Amino acid sequence: MLHMDTIDKLVLFLCCILIALMQPFTELQVVSAIISSIALGLISWFDSHQYRTIIATSFVILCFFYSHLCIFIPVILYGCFEKKMSYWVCLGLLPLLLTDAPPASTRIIILVLALISVLFKIRTIRLEELRTQYQTLFDTAREISFRLNLQNQELLEKQDEDIRIATLNERNRIAREIHDNVGHQLSRALLQVGALLTIHKEIPQLLSIKDTLSQSMDNIRNSVHNLYDTSIDLNAQIESIVKNFHFCDTELNMGFETVPEPNIKYALIAIVKEALVNVTKHSDATCVRLSFIEHPAFYQIIICDNGKATDSRHENGIGLKNISQRAEALKGHFLIRTQNGFELFITIPKERKYERFNN
């Protein structure tokens, strides 16, 4: 689709050609058409109004010497017209007023066509301004819409996170209440039954009651442990530990896609605490990077700092021994690297029954 400015120039140039054809044919008419087309092309090529003014001024001066060029003044006026130079552009009509050629009737037609060309250009400038404003408004609306969608997504994610945290807190509360109330009552009942059995050893009903209470106690204990285990948010715990670590800068990369088993959660939290304490006590690091990477068969934890790898950092260190024991208790591996700073490399396998590490 042709641009409106191009269409206007083409229409005005054809109108000038028709006016030229109405005059007696001479070779100068062809030369005038060529010169005018060249001048119009140069005016359209240059964006600077200074160059356009120079070209238009040169064309107007030529009009005083070659009157046939006056026929193409309207299209030249259209090409160089600008709002801030509207009065100066009108000086381009001087050749029509100060020369005797072309004839008076033709000059009137050219003057009318020049006025039309100026009106066309004003209309085209206004349309271009409206088009620019529309594009600006359209881009602004798209940006606002994008930001609103992004903010809405963040709000939804925050709501989901708040609901999840509230659910975990409620699980903790229920577990505590069961442990503090029902658990204590069952424990008291077991003690009372045990006291009765001491006095009345041969009553089978008391033995049955004791077995039932013991089984109920075990079930409640397992339920409380399950509630508490599922309520531990590993990501939130690690982020909280890192946030409260002020010894140096930290970089955290949580790449776990699945939720580890409760015993692995406890171990990872303890390992991170031990590693950061080791940095605080024995390192001159300015940055610590913690990476949690999940593989199909195992979890991988890398804790690396840019401090010096001195012998005192990994010899006779209780913290590092605790980390090693926790990894071994989960059938995992623990490795220290000192090529680039000081790095703890821990791998823990998945989907096995692990023995718990009790510190």
Give a quick summary of the entry.
The protein has 359 residues and is an alpha+beta fold. It has twelve helices and five strands.
User: How many β strands by DSSP?
Assistant: 5
Largest sheet: 5 strands, mixed
How many helix segments? 12
Order of the strands making up the biggest sheet: 1-2-3-5-4
Unreliable residue stretches: 353-359
Q: What number of structural domains do the residues give?
A: 3
Query: Mean pLDDT, as a whole number?
Result: 78
Query: What level of helicity do the residues show?
Result: 55-70%
Structural class: alpha+beta
Describe this structure as you would to a colleague:
The protein is α+β, with helices and mostly antiparallel strands and 359 residues long. It has three domains: 4-129, no CATH class; 157-230; 234-349, Heat Shock Protein 90 (2-Layer Sandwich). It has helices at 4-21, 27-45, 49-65, 73-80, 86-89, 94-98, 104-199, 204-230, 234-243, 262-282, 311-314, 318-329; strands at 249-255, 287-294, 298-305, 333-337, 342-349. It has a five-stranded mixed beta sheet with strand order 1-2-3-5-4. Helix 1 (4-21) packs antiparallel against helix 4 and helix 10 packs antiparallel against helix 12 (318-329). Residues 353-359 have low confidence and may be disordered.
